[in-house]
Amino acid sequence: MRSTPGGIRESRQPVNVFSSHVMQLNIHGEPEMYCIDIDLTERKRSEEERDKLQAQLLQSQKMELVGRLAGGVAHDFNNMLQTILGYSDLSLAQVEATSPVHDGLLEIRKAAMRSADLTRQLLAFARKQAVSPKILDLNDTVAGMLKMLQRLIGEDIDLAWVPGHSLWPVKMDPSQLDQILANLAVNARDAIADTGKITIETENISLNAAYCADHPETIPGEYVQLVVSDNGCGMDKEILAQIFEPFFTTKTQSKGTGLGLATVYGIVRQNNGFVNVYSEPGQGTTFSIYLPSFANEMVTAKTRRAEEASGGTETVLLVEDDTAILNLGKTILQRLGYTVLAANTPMAALELVAEYAGEIHLLITDVVMPEMNGRELVQRLSALRPAMQCLYMSGYTANVIAHHGVLDPGIHFIQKPFSIDDLARSVRETLREGKKSP
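User: That's the sequence. What structure does it adopt?
Assistant: Structure tokens below.
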């Protein structure tokens, strides 16, 4: 029975009750019992909801702290990696493949690229990575994550990798794919009690109208399917209905934030894909992610990449407050055939432009600098050289870059560390799109 403002009603649900019983003799000397029962169900529910909200706030604060730490480390680390990677590329271009020095330089470059990947993955987990969609081979990206995923799940769990053949390309940010894989791997790990197995698979799949009619979120077309399955404890239908809700978790506070699967769902939907989940208690869980293919654009993309990796003869103004990166960038651009004007401060850049009589086709500037930021510098220089195009670069995290408006649509940006080919393509793309503008 439940008490209500209008009286008492039958509930048939468990309730929390405070009960006090007092025995005493009445005026006739007969024993009587007085009972006071107070329904505490709503109060108990409110307290549990408050504790849940406090736990969610604590988890959010922890993730924000991790993000700040990752962002602070990433900027300095990316700048150092930029110097290592850039000079490795320059040295490799001057050394014959048969030289004993060549293999050593190649290993240095590989180590720099692996370090850059680790930084990118760290920022991806902290949700601080700048989003920059690229045409990807899903097999290559997954293969590059396997070692890190094995470290995440531990040695007691087998990690099987089954790549599909002749996989179609997809277009998305590599860091977002890292997030998907890491979150699904951790979710699978936590579903396995002791030892077990996690399997990652990819394959091409075409969805017809009949299938999509039964699945409202889907659209007919060609997709690349990414499947992550485990042989863990599985989930019932009630839990399955809630797994993509932010902060929903069946894990203890020390193990889960309730944001992992919500993040996966958000990323997939952002990239025009969808997620299917199959699970039964005691039978494990399978997440199937469908990402739209870009197969028809692969030939064009390859041709464009080859074209954009070439150099040019335009004049480029390079502004960077890190002397090592400024000198590196100047050397790279000159070897690509460009005339380079270099400045280590925004004020020096303004003075240089005021004195330079020739045309300046492109400005490449760091985002965060002393005196003024890159966006302010562009505004000042645009008044002097309205036809000049702009390419931003930075080793900072997405939230810092976005604060300066550099991630706005239509703005060209390259994340440090970048290779010579990356810079060459970005320069050509920026100049080419500038020529299309009226």
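The chain has three domains: 2-43, 134-301, 302-436.
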